[in-house]
Structure formats: structure tokens, C-alpha cells
Design a protein that fits this description.
74% helix; 231 residues; 2 strands; 9 helices; 2 domains; mainly alpha; elongated
Length: 231
């Protein structure tokens, strides 16, 4: 059985929904078993080409191997078993949870004892940088993780695109603002989810940017995968 056949079998297992770790482990076991079968045939006096052919027959057809693997639900990836939950709900909830943790960390670090009367420049800059990360960076980060996961598990494009738009929408709905203390002004830190008519254009732009960049990365990675598997 040539090495290319093993590579093709890995790809078939992945496209059938088998998790990458299980697909590679299964193929590694098949390679070991195949080598043993070839040695057995050679010990019987068969030529190398015949030994390989006989070992391949004894190993079983790829269709049978993939079919038996698919019968074991434990071998299937979470994305293949629960695509809507894994691709749609989980990334959006993960994004919101990350934003909440980031805001909590800011509140503890800078505002636990009340806003400083005269915050240092690094405090201002660091807070605004983290706020920018929450509004723009985290949605892109979660979109990238979703794309990487869906490509590595060979999930259908519909689930990936659905997840990207949910992440983009969730990220666009987050808001963050800081009011620094001053004469007659009390400092405050606020963050949450919301939409207003005044912020509608900004939310739309943020959602569109995340969705477009996520789709572009998805298309590039998918195209690269297709060229690699058919090349």
C-alpha cells in the first residue's frame, strides 16, 4: 500500500467527520498492520509487488475502513456531531465570556479602589488598548479560531459561515467606554451588550469587517486545502 494511499485515507476519514487525532492514530495502526502483513507474505515467498497487493486486500478496502470508523461515534469530532452548537453557539458565547473576563480584569486592576484621581499615561493607554482589543481584536481572534477548527475538521461551509456571522454580530454588539475623573467628573468604566440608533452604523461596520476578514481567511485556507489534497 503506497504512502499516498495512507494520506488519502486520512483525508477521507477527516471528511467523514472523524476527529484528526483519531484519524491519524487509526491510519498509524493500519500502517503498522500493513507492514506486518507484507512481511508475512514475503515470508511465504511472494514477490514484493504481490506481497503488497495481498496485504492490501487483507487490510480491507478504504470504504470499509471509513465505514467502520464512522460507526463509532466516539471517533467523530465534536463539530461533526454537533455542528450548530460547536460552530455557531460556542464561539459566540466564548467571545462574550472573554470580553466579560477582560472587563473584570480591568475593573480589578484599575478601579478596585475607585478610579485614580490622576491616572498615569500608561494606565490610560493600557485601558484604551484593552478596550480596543475587546471591540475589534477578540471578534477577529474568535473568527480565526473558528475558521481553523472548521478547516481542520473538514466541516461543511454552511456551519462555518453561520458561525462567522454569529461571531461578527456578537462582537459588534459589545461596547466599552471609560470616563476619566476630572474636575467635577467622577471616573467610570462601562461595558456590555447593546444597540442604539446612534451606534447602528458603527456596529454594522464592525460586524462587516469581522465577517469579511473571517470569510477571506476561510476561503484562502479552504482553497489551499483543496489544492493540497488534489495536487
Amino acid at each position: 500500500m503506497p504512502d499516498s494511499d495512507f494520506g488519502s485515507l486520512v483525508e477521507r476519514l477527516l471528511r467523514a467527520g472523524i476527529a484528526p487525532v483519531h484519524a491519524r492514530r487509526l491510519v498509524a495502526e493500519l500502517e503498522t498492520h500493513y507492514a506486518s502483513l507484507v512481511e508475512e507474505e514475503l515470508a511465504r515467498g511472494e514477490p514484493l509487488a504481490t506481497a503488497r497487493s495481498m496485504a492490501r486486500i487483507r487490510l480491507g478496502a478504504d470504504d470499509d475502513i471509513v465505514g467502520k470508523a464512522c460507526e463509532q461515534s466516539a471517533l467523530r469530532s465534536w463539530g461533526a456531531r454537533w455542528p450548530l452548537s460547536v460552530c455557531g453557539v460556542a464561539p459566540a458565547l466564548g467571545l462574550l465570556a472573554t470580553c466579560a473576563l477582560l472587563v473584570a480584569a480591568l475593573a480589578i486592576a484599575f478601579f478596585a479602589k475607585g478610579p485614580p484621581s490622576a491616572p498615569a499615561p500608561w494606565v490610560r493607554n493600557g485601558t484604551m488598548l484593552l478596550g480596543w482589543l475587546m471591540l475589534y481584536g477578540l471578534p477577529l481572534m474568535w473568527a480565526g479560531m473558528l475558521v481553523r477548527y472548521s478547516i481542520s475538521r473538514r466541516l461543511g461551509w454552511r456551519w462555518s459561515v453561520t458561525g462567522l456571522f454569529l461571531v461578527a454580530a456578537s462582537g459588534a454588539l459589545t461596547n466599552f467606554s471609560v470616563t476619566w475623573p476630572g474636575p467635577g467628573t467622577r471616573g467610570a468604566l462601562s461595558a456590555g451588550l447593546g444597540w442604539t440608533m446612534q451606534s447602528g452604523v458603527s456596529l454594522g461596520i464592525r460586524c462587516l469587517v469581522t465577517a469579511v476578514l473571517g470569510l477571506a481567511v476561510y476561503w484562502l485556507m479552504r482553497d489551499r486545502l483543496e489544492r493540497h489534497t488534489t495536487g
